[in-house]
Protein backbone atom coordinates (compact mmCIF):
# COMPACT_ATOMS: atom_id res chain seq x y z
CA UNK A 1 0.00 0.00 0.00
CA UNK A 2 1.16 3.49 -0.82
CA UNK A 3 -0.05 6.87 0.39
CA UNK A 4 -0.28 9.89 -1.88
CA UNK A 5 -1.01 13.25 -0.22
CA UNK A 6 -1.93 16.61 -1.59
CA UNK A 7 -2.71 19.94 -0.02
CA UNK A 8 -5.03 22.58 -1.39
CA UNK A 9 -6.05 26.08 -0.36
CA UNK A 10 -9.23 27.80 -1.49
CA UNK A 11 -9.90 31.48 -0.82
CA UNK A 12 -13.49 32.58 -0.38
CA UNK A 13 -15.20 35.85 0.53
CA UNK A 14 -17.38 34.06 3.12
CA UNK A 15 -16.27 34.27 6.79
CA UNK A 16 -14.94 30.99 8.24
CA UNK A 17 -17.76 30.37 10.78
CA UNK A 18 -20.46 30.81 8.14
CA UNK A 19 -18.64 28.61 5.62
CA UNK A 20 -18.11 25.93 8.31
CA UNK A 21 -21.80 25.96 9.27
CA UNK A 22 -22.90 25.59 5.66
CA UNK A 23 -20.27 23.15 4.41
CA UNK A 24 -19.83 20.97 7.50
CA UNK A 25 -22.76 21.30 9.88
CA UNK A 26 -25.47 21.40 7.18
CA UNK A 27 -23.47 19.95 4.30
CA UNK A 28 -25.66 16.85 3.98
CA UNK A 29 -28.66 19.07 3.19
CA UNK A 30 -26.94 21.90 1.34
CA UNK A 31 -24.90 19.81 -1.10
CA UNK A 32 -28.02 18.53 -2.89
CA UNK A 33 -29.21 22.15 -3.29
CA UNK A 34 -25.95 23.57 -4.65
CA UNK A 35 -25.04 20.60 -6.87
CA UNK A 36 -28.36 18.89 -7.72
CA UNK A 37 -27.02 17.64 -11.05
CA UNK A 38 -24.10 15.91 -9.33
CA UNK A 39 -25.45 14.81 -5.93
CA UNK A 40 -28.85 13.14 -5.84
CA UNK A 41 -29.03 12.54 -2.08
CA UNK A 42 -27.06 12.18 1.13
CA UNK A 43 -28.31 9.52 3.51
CA UNK A 44 -27.14 9.35 7.11
CA UNK A 45 -26.81 5.63 7.79
CA UNK A 46 -25.79 5.98 11.43
CA UNK A 47 -24.89 8.75 13.86
CA UNK A 48 -25.98 12.31 14.47
CA UNK A 49 -23.58 14.24 12.22
CA UNK A 50 -20.70 14.21 14.69
CA UNK A 51 -17.67 11.95 14.86
CA UNK A 52 -18.53 8.38 13.94
CA UNK A 53 -21.40 9.32 11.63
CA UNK A 54 -21.62 7.20 8.47
CA UNK A 55 -23.11 8.82 5.35
CA UNK A 56 -23.82 7.54 1.88
CA UNK A 57 -23.59 10.13 -0.89
CA UNK A 58 -25.55 9.11 -3.98
CA UNK A 59 -24.45 10.70 -7.23
CA UNK A 60 -26.81 12.02 -9.90
CA UNK A 61 -27.85 10.14 -13.01
CA UNK A 62 -25.38 12.03 -15.22
CA UNK A 63 -22.44 10.83 -13.14
CA UNK A 64 -20.26 7.83 -13.94
CA UNK A 65 -20.20 7.15 -10.19
CA UNK A 66 -23.03 5.69 -8.12
CA UNK A 67 -22.16 6.34 -4.48
CA UNK A 68 -19.52 6.78 -1.79
CA UNK A 69 -19.72 6.00 1.90
CA UNK A 70 -17.85 8.21 4.30
CA UNK A 71 -17.24 8.29 8.03
CA UNK A 72 -16.96 11.57 9.92
CA UNK A 73 -13.79 11.45 12.00
CA UNK A 74 -13.67 14.95 13.57
CA UNK A 75 -16.05 17.91 13.77
CA UNK A 76 -14.52 20.69 15.88
CA UNK A 77 -16.80 23.74 16.00
CA UNK A 78 -14.29 25.81 17.96
CA UNK A 79 -11.24 25.12 15.80
CA UNK A 80 -13.38 24.98 12.63
CA UNK A 81 -11.88 21.68 11.54
CA UNK A 82 -13.53 18.71 9.85
CA UNK A 83 -12.06 15.33 8.95
CA UNK A 84 -13.66 12.40 7.18
CA UNK A 85 -12.75 9.13 5.49
CA UNK A 86 -14.22 7.78 2.26
CA UNK A 87 -14.12 4.01 2.70
CA UNK A 88 -16.54 2.41 0.22
CA UNK A 89 -17.93 3.11 -3.24
CA UNK A 90 -16.89 3.53 -6.82
CA UNK A 91 -15.04 6.76 -5.97
CA UNK A 92 -12.30 4.41 -4.78
CA UNK A 93 -12.13 2.92 -8.31
CA UNK A 94 -11.03 -0.47 -7.01
CA UNK A 95 -7.50 0.91 -6.58
CA UNK A 96 -7.86 2.73 -3.28
CA UNK A 97 -8.41 1.36 0.20
CA UNK A 98 -9.64 4.76 1.41
CA UNK A 99 -9.32 8.53 1.05
CA UNK A 100 -8.96 10.74 4.11
CA UNK A 101 -9.62 14.48 4.12
CA UNK A 102 -8.76 17.09 6.75
CA UNK A 103 -10.28 20.53 6.27
CA UNK A 104 -9.62 23.71 8.25
CA UNK A 105 -11.46 27.01 7.83
CA UNK A 106 -9.27 30.02 8.69
CA UNK A 107 -9.91 33.77 8.53
CA UNK A 108 -8.38 35.70 5.65
CA UNK A 109 -7.25 39.34 5.86
CA UNK A 110 -10.20 40.52 3.71
CA UNK A 111 -12.85 39.13 6.11
CA UNK A 112 -13.40 35.96 4.12
CA UNK A 113 -11.77 32.62 4.70
CA UNK A 114 -9.02 30.37 3.51
CA UNK A 115 -10.01 26.73 3.38
CA UNK A 116 -7.03 24.43 3.83
CA UNK A 117 -7.47 20.83 2.80
CA UNK A 118 -5.18 17.84 3.13
CA UNK A 119 -6.22 14.69 1.26
CA UNK A 120 -4.51 11.32 1.47
CA UNK A 121 -5.12 8.53 -1.00
CA UNK A 122 -4.31 5.04 0.33
CA UNK A 123 -3.64 2.80 -2.66
CA UNK A 124 -4.12 -0.95 -2.82
CA UNK A 125 -0.94 -2.84 -3.69
CA UNK A 126 1.60 -1.08 -5.88
CA UNK A 127 -0.83 1.13 -7.79
CA UNK A 128 0.57 4.60 -8.46
CA UNK A 129 -1.91 7.46 -8.73
CA UNK A 130 -1.45 9.64 -11.80
CA UNK A 131 -1.25 13.43 -11.57
CA UNK A 132 -4.42 13.67 -13.72
CA UNK A 133 -6.33 11.68 -11.08
CA UNK A 134 -5.11 13.99 -8.33
CA UNK A 135 -6.01 17.05 -10.41
CA UNK A 136 -9.51 15.65 -11.00
CA UNK A 137 -9.99 15.26 -7.23
CA UNK A 138 -8.74 18.80 -6.59
CA UNK A 139 -11.04 20.22 -9.27
CA UNK A 140 -14.08 18.50 -7.75
CA UNK A 141 -13.21 19.77 -4.26
CA UNK A 142 -12.66 23.29 -5.56
CA UNK A 143 -15.99 23.16 -7.39
CA UNK A 144 -17.81 22.09 -4.24
CA UNK A 145 -16.32 24.91 -2.14
CA UNK A 146 -17.12 27.45 -4.87
CA UNK A 147 -20.71 26.15 -5.20
CA UNK A 148 -21.25 26.62 -1.45
CA UNK A 149 -19.71 30.10 -1.67
CA UNK A 150 -22.04 31.02 -4.56
CA UNK A 151 -25.06 29.79 -2.59
CA UNK A 152 -24.06 31.86 0.44
CA UNK A 153 -23.49 34.97 -1.67
CA UNK A 154 -26.95 34.53 -3.26
CA UNK A 155 -28.51 33.88 0.18
CA UNK A 156 -26.76 36.31 2.54
CA UNK A 157 -29.09 35.59 5.48
CA UNK A 158 -28.43 31.84 5.43
CA UNK A 159 -26.25 30.35 8.19
CA UNK A 160 -25.84 33.51 10.26
Separation of the first and last Cα atoms: 44 Å
Major β-sheet, in short? 7 strands, antiparallel
Unreliable spans: none
> Helix count, per DSSP?
3
> Whole-number average pLDDT?
93
How much strand? 35-45%
Structural class based on helices, strands and sheet pairing: alpha+beta
Percent of residues in helices = 25-40%
* Overall form: globular
**Rg, nearest Å:** 15 Å
Q: Largest sheet, order of strands side by side? A: 1-7-6-5-4-3-2
The count of strands amounts to: 7
Helix/strand order: EHHEEEEEEH
List the helices and strands and how they pair.
Blueprint: E1 3-12, H1 16-25, H2 27-34, E2 39-46, E3 54-59, E4 67-76, E5 81-89, E6 96-107, E7 113-123, H3 131-154
Helix pairs in contact: 1-2
3D architecture notes:
- The chain is α+β, with helices and mostly antiparallel strands.
- It has 3 helices and 7 strands; from the N terminus they run βααββββββα.
- Strands 1-7-6-5-4-3-2 form a 7-stranded antiparallel beta sheet.
- A hairpin with a 5-residue loop joins β6 and β7.
- α1 packs across α2.
- The radius of gyration is 15 Å and the shape is globular.
- The mean pLDDT is 93.
Keywords:
160 residues; alpha+beta; seven-stranded antiparallel sheet; 7 strands; 26% helix
Could you write a compact summary of the structure shown?
The chain has 160 residues and is an alpha+beta fold. The chain has helices at residues 16-25, 27-34, 131-154, and strands at residues 3-12, 39-46, 54-59, 67-76, 81-89, 96-107, 113-123.
Amino acid sequence: MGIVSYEMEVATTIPPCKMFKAFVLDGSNLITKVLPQAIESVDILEGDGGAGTIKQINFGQGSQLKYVKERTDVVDKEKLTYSYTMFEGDVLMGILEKITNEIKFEPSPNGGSIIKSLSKYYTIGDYEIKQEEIKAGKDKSMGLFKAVEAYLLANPDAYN
